[in-house]
């Protein structure tokens, strides 16, 4: 069975797990939100001018010079 | 080298990414359940449960820096933009994992050692330096406007930081430290009963797979971001 009574150490165990959960969740959410945002931007540019999109594909991840 | 081509990378990782996210979620749930189903340690009591987040944070945080360093090497020597994207995408999760290792270690240290921190401890100091390398890497990238120059400067710093990895790993063997020596990677096998080993290994796998999910998602995002910037620049030139 699961033991959730941390007794005298509750003030140390729960913050350790709580902070870990919060930071991991923030990392995951940030990665997914950024992915959605930039994919939406690319889709928008693609819709506006598909021929330019094809040109960009020639230098796949090179940024602006 | 198969995945060095960004288009191939995007194609290959597209079906892999959701699988990694789902796998990380399942491992985290199972690992958490095992962590609280394990009995109290006869010496450390319930504080032993802090180990199930502290050890994964520290060990994966160290491995992430190895990934950042190797990616920096390929970015610097072969000037490969995907390697640079990989190094950049590893920095923030690496810094977060290492910070969690420091914070959770501190929360374990207070009740067990009687101190939140020990300045003279080689393991604690070398992990703090690892965290500072992560911060320095991100600060350097953010401080230079020219992305190509920023990438080269950060790659050099990323490579220099690799020197710290064996110091972190072997600090507990080379010096007398308050931090205990290795319990898992030992010549005579793990010095831990199976009832604690199972949650610990599950949580290490969970944190590792979660990092892979975040890392690959972020590398994909970086590829898309650079494409968007390229398209915007071309659009501006044409206008």
Which secondary structure elements does this structure contain, and how are they paired or packed?
The complex is a heterodimer of chains A (about 60) and B (about 240).
Chain A lengths: L9 H39 L1 H7 L9
Helix pairs in contact in A: 1-2
Chain B lengths: L5 H32 L13 H27 L3 H33 L8 H22 L3 H15 L2 H11 L19 H45 L1
Q: What key phrases describe this protein's structure?
A:
heterodimer, A: 65 residues, mainly alpha, B: 239 residues, 7 helices, 77% helix, globular
Please give the alpha-carbon distance between the first and last residues of chain B: 38 Å
SS strand fraction of chain B: under 5%
- Which secondary-structure class do the elements of chain A indicate? mainly alpha
Q: Unreliable segments of chain B (pLDDT under 50, ≥5 consecutive)?
A: none
Major sheet description of chain A? none
The arrangement of helices and strands of chain A along the chain is HH
Secondary structure: number of strands of chain A: 0
What oligomeric state is this?
heterodimer
Number of domains of chain B: 1
* Sheet with most strands of chain B: none
């Amino acid at each position: 069975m699961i033991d959730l009574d941390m007794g005298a150490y509750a003030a140390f165990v729960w913050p350790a797990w709580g902070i870990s959960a919060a930071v991991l969740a923030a990392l995951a959410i940030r990665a997914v939100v950024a992915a959605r945002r930039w994919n939406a931007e690319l889709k928008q540019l693609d819709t506006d001018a598909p021929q330019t999109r094809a040109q960009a594909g020639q230098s796949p991840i090179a940024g602006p010079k | 080298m198969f995945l060095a081509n960004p288009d191939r990378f995007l194609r290959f990782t597209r079906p892999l990414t959701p699988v990694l996210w789902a796998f990380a979620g399942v491992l985290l749930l199972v690992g958490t359940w095992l962590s609280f189903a394990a009995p109290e340690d006869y010496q450390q009591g319930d504080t032993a449960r802090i180990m199930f987040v502290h050890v994964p944070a520290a060990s994966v945080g160290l491995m992430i820096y190895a990934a950042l360093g190797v990616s920096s090497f390929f970015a610097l020597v072969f000037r490969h933009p995907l390697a640079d994207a990989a190094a950049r995408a590893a920095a923030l999760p690496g810094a977060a994992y290492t910070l969690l290792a420091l914070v959770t270690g501190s929360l374990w240290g207070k009740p067990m050692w009687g101190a939140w921190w020990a300045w003279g401890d080689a393991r604690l100091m070398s992990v703090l330096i690892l965290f500072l390398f992560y911060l320095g890497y991100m600060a350097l990238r953010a401080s230079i406007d020219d992305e190509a120059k920023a990438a080269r400067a950060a790659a050099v710093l990323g490579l220099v930081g690799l020197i710290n990895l064996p110091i972190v790993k072997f600090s507990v063997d080379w010096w007398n430290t308050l931090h205990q020596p290795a319990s898992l990677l030992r010549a005579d096998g793990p010095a831990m009963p199976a009832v604690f080993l199972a949650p610990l290994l599950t949580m290490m796998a969970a944190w590792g797979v979660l990092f892979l999910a975040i890392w690959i998602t972020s590398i994909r995002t970086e590829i898309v971001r650079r494409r968007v910037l390229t398209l915007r620049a071309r659009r501006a030139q044409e206008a």
